[in-house]
Design a protein that fits this description.
251 residues, mainly alpha, MetI-like fold, 11 helices, 0% strand, globular
């Protein structure tokens, strides 16, 4: 294991040990803040059940994220390639993004039922804005002299977009995707809070009703692990998509 991977692991272990020592040392009741050992014991007692709930939430997150990534990049291309479309479509998009998604979630349940679609839509709505903004910023960051040279060589608009603007935008696009992935997980939990019989959001709500704090913390701990894993997945794809940046930074 490399030092870069070992240091975060050491930090997590130290934080858990401090948490355990503080709970035991100060005699904090388990119904307020359980010790990490109690949280791990809760997961250990029901591993398959927690795996099923985590898999459901992860699936919702990935579906919402994928929709946000595809739509966000496509929408960014539209508004950067056409000033008319930007003036026509971007203000309503910003207005929709300004509406709290918690307020929209009950409507989505009414329109699409209590299955997975409304949860995926909430995850999509929460995650899509940073993809659009960062992708548009990146598409506009292509060096003007390179664009002028491409036009002088009679490069088509499509080839300039794909071969110059898109590659110049990749760092910004992946920055937006990392933010979107974490927000998609938040959106999935919001959707599960509103209406769900599965997922870690449902686990948190049902455990809250019975004051089972250890189960709440178990779900939160799994959400943290899922979030880190999904962000790492985006980082892995980023390194494969931009090998020149990995070489430049020495990573």
């Amino acid at each position: 294991m490399t030092r870069g991977a070992l240091l975060p692991l050491i930090g997590i272990v130290v934080a858990l040990l401090v948490w355990e020592a503080a709970v035991r040392g100060f005699g904090v009741p388990g119904y307020l803040v359980p010790a990490p050992s109690a949280v791990f014991a809760e997961i250990w007692d029901f591993p398959l059940w927690y795996a099923q709930q985590a898999a459901f939430t992860t699936g919702i997150t990935l579906a919402g994220f994928a929709a946000a990534a595809v739509f966000g990049v496509a929408f960014a291309i539209l508004i950067t390639e056409s000033r008319t479309l930007e003036r026509l479509l971007f203000p309503p998009f910003v207005a929709l993004n300004s509406v709290p998604k918690v307020a929209l979630a009950p409507l989505l349940v009414i329109w699409f039922g209590t299955g997975s679609p409304p949860k995926i839509l909430v995850a999509f709505l929460v995650a899509v804005f940073p993809v659009v903004v960062d992708s548009a910023l990146g598409l506009r960051s292509a060096p003007p002299d390179v664009l002028d040279l491409a036009r002088a060589l009679r490069g088509s608009r499509w080839s300039v977009l794909l071969r110059i603007k898109f590659f110049a935008a990749l760092p910004s696009i992946f920055a937006g995707l990392k933010v979107a992935m974490s927000l998609a997980l938040v959106g999935a939990i919001v959707g599960e809070f509103v209406s769900s019989q599965n997922g870690l959001g449902h686990v948190i709500l049902s455990a809250q009703g019975s004051f089972d704090t250890a189960r709440v913390f178990a779900a939160l701990m799994l959400l943290a692990v899922i979030g880190m894993a999904l962000i790492a997945l985006v980082g892995f794809v980023e390194r494969r998509a931009m090998p020149w940046r990995r070489g430049a930074t020495g990573h």
